[in-house]
Amino acid sequence: MNFYTSDTHFYHESLLNSPVFSPRSQFLTSEEMNEKIIESWNNKVKQTDTVYHLGDISLAFTKPSHLIMTKTLEILNRLNGNLVIIKGNHDNMSLLKFLMANNYVTVNGNLKFTIHEVGTRIKFNHYEVFLTHYPLMFGITKNKINLHGHIHNYSVHQKENINVGIDSPEIDYLPSGSVSFGAPLSESEIIHIIQAKRTDYLQRV
Known about the structure:
By secondary structure, this protein is α/β, with parallel strands linked by helices. The chain is built from 4 helices and 9 strands; from the N terminus they run E-H-E-H-E-H-E-E-E-E-E-E-H. The strands form 2 sheets. Strands 4-3-2-1-9 form a 5-stranded mixed sheet. The longest helix is centred in the C-terminal third of the chain and has 18 residues. The chain starts with a strand and ends with a helix. The model has no long low-confidence stretch (mean pLDDT 93).
């Protein structure tokens, strides 16, 4: 199965009480936040699944230290599934090169890490899906969808844009409590959000 997520920001202590982006005040430390994300992720994702991570993996905004890169790699190695990573604005190329230098083949014969610097495109459920870190603006379109992150607890008021970040308010389109904090979204959940947001959008315009 394929899953989608963004903006995990492992070790990003300042997000715990951010007045603007994704306040995660339920956690006392970034380590506690990290462990919750890992638990939620692994309770949902199997080792043979693929997770598209749409950027902002960890703390590394400027050139990260070797310690941060090593600790980030350790966390990613604890996460189930193969990771297709779209570079976010917090993902320094030094970190991405470090991940590729420590890449390996997993139980399903695929590489643990695949990196895209800008984005990629896939298809599912008759949708053409563009996976990016930053939101794209399509204009009026029928079957094009943009899954993105970057804006944390905000939403683009366009039915084509779906924020899949772990702080996304669009997770509220799903049944209450059905997505544990940090858990990636399945394709069936994405389809539910797309349809619910379209209905909501049409009612507002």
